[in-house]
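Thread: quick sanity check before group meeting

JM: Hey all, I'm pulling together slides for Thursday and realized we never actually wrote out the predicted structure for the chain we discussed last week. Dropping the sequence here so it's in one place. If anyone has concerns about the input, flag it before I start.
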Amino acid sequence: MTGEVWTVVVAAGSGRRFGAAKQFVPLGGRPLVAWAIEAALAVSDGVVVVLPDGVAELPDGTPDVQRIVAGGATRSASVRAGLTAVPSTAEVVLVHDGARPMADEALFRRLLDAVGPTADAGEPGSDRPAGAAVPGVAVADTLRSRDGVPVDRDTVVAVQTPQAFRAEVLRRAHAGGGEATDDATLCEELGARVVVVEGDPSNLKVTTPSDLAVAESLLAARSPSPLQVGDFADEATTHAASNRDQLMTPELRVGNGFDIHRFSDDPSRRCVLGGVEIPDSPGFEAHSDGDVVAHAVADALLGAVGQGDIGAMFPDTDPTHAGADSMELLDGVVARLARDGWRALNVDCSVIAERPKLAPHRPAMVERLSAVVGAPVSVKGRRAEGVGSLGSGEAVVALASALVVRS
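JM (edit): ok, ran it. Output follows.
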């Protein structure tokens, strides 16, 4: 490969599905995005990292890069922001997702070889080097279209990043401000020739907390990476060696939580569920605010690590907890787990209630709970169908299950 090569590492996502800014969570003793940056540095003359708007610098433990820019509202907008920081002298631009930590140098070089040194490459049907190259892996599952028509899996591949582009092709593709799930699609819309090179099945994208556990295992199983460069090599190698056995089998635990509260006749009591106040509904008889959802989630987390329940941690005999905000109590539970080296991967909660209606408030509950727990929390509403005190609308019950991992 001749000419300057620059890489844009896109790490501007909010991590909504993950429950946190996943690009900054620890992996192998360093921020997740550090692995993607390190891979890019091994083959590039310069690296531009695109971070969320308002985040001005990379966290500790991340290699130094040439430039940092703020991302946009979409992935394509973030790539365009990164392109503005790539110098005009670049002949090839790679685009890589910051949430793909397992891409190795061999994959990067296969892509660079495919785009080649010819500056005017990219015309349809040309036998010259391509204007863009993407890594693809075979699909193992049987496929059907949404209308039920079988799809021959031998004719399709799953496309990954990094992706490599002739610089002028990528700039033209983004000049119109188009949107796509990847940059190769925009280039193809211009008529550029896009080739598929052999991808890597282990080059997963971390989207959920369970993906992070898989990445930990893959990282530990991999021999010391040729991508470790500069001052980070000794630290990363030492960490991987000392933690290999632990990372190969992440320590996972499951806990269950339960809570029930009757509705109160006190008109001053607020109805709070999942941290969301629900108007026009009576509150609950309780020492705190009676948020059965927050209490069940807290019990599930504490139960997973064998630390009792929320009543033992915040007893109702303590007057300082009278009328307490249960989301603050839940935050205290999450902090206790963190001090002992645990973090939640996800929590699933079912609420059994004839009243109030949960559907209008469920998105806000999910958002608040996920933010406090630091992991995805799902909330489902159920009815007791007229059976017993729950069916008559006298009380509300919440059940929760939590999966936690030792950090």
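AS: nice. Confidence is low (pLDDT under 50) at residues 118-125, 223-233, 236-248. The longest helix spans residues 232-248.
JM: adding both to the slides.
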